[in-house]
Task: structure prediction
Amino acid sequence: MALSAANMFAATAVKPEIPTNWQRPYAEFVWPNFRDGRLSVSTQSIDMIDNPPGAPRQAWNLGMKCGLDGHASLVPLYLWAAACSAWLVWTLRLSTTA
Result:
């Protein structure tokens, strides 16, 4: 379950729509890009039929919009997850003491 969650997290951070020409998409595309901090690599905008070669990146995440790059661009997501986890723990503790 943890491996599946890690694979989905990495694929979403890199590019959810992996090109079909990869024989082993996670080993050859997703994890090398994630390891090297190449995130949101899609060059396909919402109104394009395909990924044009050499086109500018069309994808971003909140951290990138805040000026962060690579793995640092995931910090807002980590903070959100930590806040939600803290809220969940706090809520569960309240329900067990009531």
The longest helix spans residues 75-97. The mean pLDDT is 90. The radius of gyration is 17 Å.
